[in-house]
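Final paragraph of the annual report: two paired records, presented back to back.
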Amino acid sequence: LEDYHYYPLQFRANDPETPHRGGIILEQLNPSAGNEPAFRDWYNDSYFPAAARRSGVHSAGFLTFRRHGQMIPTTPSQHYVGIYRVDGPEALAAWRDSRDLRASALVDQASLRVTHWDAITSKLTKDDVQHPTAAGLAQEERARAHMGDRVLTGGTEKLGSNAPGDAVDASR
């Protein structure tokens, strides 16, 4: 997972009065070698407006990486991201059926990543944690069951300075 600040180039909200209840389509990409100005023009002026008008797109953003304001002195694998908040299966189908990014010579195909993310649980609030309801606890158990063995664990070695091989008490 790469955690960088990206700066907006453009944003569009198709229905700002309606809450977004769906998932996210994330496009991570780079321009092909020597084509950055043409890539930005194409994505901004052609691709982005058309993608933002696809059925089920709630809002859309196109962002770029800049070194300014980063917390770590590295660079991401992809310098541009398109973020599309989508509602409904028709939006996901529109991305599955689209070949626009794969067909463009302006996009570096080796670095292109298009993923779809759905929320497993609703936003967690302080009250949800301090005063859980039966429904909230049931929802948490369903989310845990949904994740199965795909849960990333580890990092306990950072919690203490025990000798190699010693168990670390993560409850401290």
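The closing record of the year follows.
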Amino acid sequence: MKRDVVSSKRKTVNTLLLLFLSLAFALLSALKLPLLDARADAYFSDALKGATVAYAATRGVNAVVSVLKESEVEVSPVGVGVNIAVGQILDPIDDMTERASSILVTAIVALGLQKIAFEIGGMAALQVIALLLLSMIPLVWLPTRGGAGWVSLVLRASAFLLLLRLLLPLSALVSDGLHSHLFQPRIDTARESLSVVSSRYETLNAFEKEEEQGLFSSLVGKAGRQVEETREAFGHVADNVEQIVGSLLELATLYVALFVIQILVIPLLFIWLGYALVRYPDWRHFGAPHNPPGDAG
């Protein structure tokens, strides 16, 4: 009888503890971790901004190549053979910009999804913990053999979610460190190289947007300037084909590596670490009656 009373008191204490913890986690779910969450948010914002700028530079190169292809007659009025040479020069760049653009779009979408998952996961993890702790109250009052296994499972799941809430910002900080010191300098170099080409699109496109002045001399002058700018742009592209293709390839390679390391490897590594940390403790004693040594009952 005395043992039943002790067991009942223990279960009552555990029930009150679970109620308190559940309420605490529900209230804490709306709060952000000091420093960690702010740094993680800044990393995602900067990474998305950098990827968007790189995509804009890549599309700018593609736009310049498209304008030059449409202006083949003006660029190379000598004959068909020269027009074919123009296409042979521009086609590799055109093809590479399309591939790099697709990779950059994938990286932008992946970073955006990771940012959303981080923001939602931080709040949802603690709310789920609160619900799991509430669900444990009936289990505490079940007989030891019937409830101990479920109690252990729920506690492991709660511990895993809590660790995940703490580890996700840390994984973002690790990604930020790698991005800042390993990826960003090389991305900036490749992007600046492409910006020299993409900036010419504004000049070439300005001729098409200018209003017609109605004077023959103005039209002739405009056409002459357009031909000259087009030839100059083509000459710059032709002289730097290897550098342009190399920069596009560099961007594509860096963002593939960024995707694999920052979007897949690091988060999965931290998830595995959280799982490993909650795998070994034995939670089955929670809520179970204490059997003193030598008590055969």
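The chain is about 85% helix and 0% strand. This concludes the annual technical report; the extension proposal builds directly on these records.
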